[in-house]
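Collaborator request log, item 7. Partner lab (contact: R.S.) asked for a structural prediction of acetate--CoA ligase to inform their binding assays.
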Amino acid sequence: MTERPDAPRPQRICKSLNGAEALSDPEKLRAELISGLPGGGLNIAYEAVDRHVTQGQGGATAIRWLGKGGERRELSYCDLADRSSRFAAVLHSHGLGKGDRVFCLMDRTPDLFAAALGTLRAGMVFTPLFSAFGPDPIRTRMEIGEANVLVTTASLYRRKIAPWRQQIPSLKLVLIEGDDAPEDCVALSPALDAANGGGEICRTGPEDTALIHFTSGTTGKPKGVIHVHKAVESHAVTGRVALDLQPGTVFWCTADPGWVTGTSYGILAPLVHRATLVVDEAEFDLDLWYNTLVREKVEVWYTAPTAIRMMMRAGEAAAKPYDFSRLRFLASVGEPLNPEAVVWSDRVFGRPFHDNWWQTETGGIMIANTRTMDIKPGSMGKPLPGIEAGVVERQDDGVRELKPGEVGELALRPGWPSMMRGYLHEEERYRKAFAGGWYLSGDLAMRDDEGYYWFVGRADDLIKSSGHLIGPFEVESALIEHPAVAEAAVIGLPDETAGEVVKAYVTLNHGYAPGEALEHDIRGHARKRLGPAVAPREITFRTSLPKTRSGKIMRRLLKARELGLPEGDISTLERDER
Ligand code: ATP
Ligand code: MG
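Returned to partner:
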């Protein structure tokens, strides 16, 4: 690939935290944080919960749950050990055992945590799904994953599962949250109350399967990604290095476990660190979220660009009444974080968002702006200690490594603990993800002279226009700098002379109305920022952009619609007002 046409001229934010201990030795951190099962073996649930109890720290608060209706419940590590061991006992009492697969379709209630950790504790395999999924996406995933158990609610069961339950032959048990269950199902609360807690933890080994996680489906049909118990070593190390989790840290991860972030960092990593996990069941609501940050005295906050852009859209004034001084570290993942958002958050929260990059496949954070380095707004940061990254170009007989400044595919040297062990039933696809000793991520990036990585776009989304390679992220970030633009999505459309031309879809900030004059003005701004070859030829105003449930813009869907092509797999699409 060619030189990046318009290399970034970043400004820096130098706010690295003082007194940071050496975080460069992942082996030392792993040894400090992960003990293994007494007597041998490795089980994520032990590292996340029971280890703290064994070490006399069971009284610490593990979960502070904030229910949708204003309810509030706290669970200590002892409570969580008790609930999860009872959950494991319930599974055993139904004849289930090691390797059986437990799917969860429910909101982020305390039962979800008992189910996740109880499943792992029993040596079974945990798969969370978004409760907002429709019946088809749920069914397909349960079929692909050969689900043996489903944990859900009565209402979700009746609406989404009951009509086809009998057609999933592997499904042996349906557990229903609460006291009452429809016929053929088992009510969870009385079963937990009757079960004996404190049973033995299954002696799993590091390579035993622990989790199957489905990807977001941004680029096509979601893949079932296999992760093993050893992954907890990555959760431990990255939780400290990339998110600054310490014992007692009040940590809020806004992601649902239906998205891998909500499992690796919404359940496992913070518990391994004996942090206190704030769990807010509610979806994004500006005042509610600001209130949660302040009232719960959140210290470390992990969220996604889509939420950050919604906060920006509401404006700085909306944040003024709140005192955010307890926040010490802010991190973002899932989509490129526009430089504008980093600078904005530094102003509003007194701390910049630290972007980091990873995938369902990598199981944990790979590249990050850590607390000990300067931030270059717009950059994903640097590979974490123990992670070797590169920018490569695929060739017939392997790959060629590219130099700093060149754009290519972001690649990683396999071998870290939370690397996927396979795509479920997709051997060939899995094999194709590796070449020349690298794992190829499918994302395009550029590394600068100082080793910082810059996201360019997904390989599928790259635009080729008049000899230029254009990453949508760069164009979208420039558009967002315009005061009227809240969010932007950019695609390439076929063009006879240029090959492709850039088309943008934008949503507007409050107080701006779509119109020709505004379009003209935004185009002018983009041309000035990017040059005429890269700036969008056409801009369409929309009230929202199509996104996955994990908050990722589905550019391929915009393109398919524009070209009148089939929409492809849209099982993860959130509501979409055009
Ligand atoms: P699918 O693989 O099914 O198309 P997906 O790739 O969106 O879906 P995830 O594993 O949830 O599924 O997301 C990982 C992807 O999200 C990355 O490959 C990358 O494209 C994007 N991503 C994650 N973090 C960042 C980041 N900090 N900056 C830019 N992109 C990011
Ligand atoms: Mg992907």
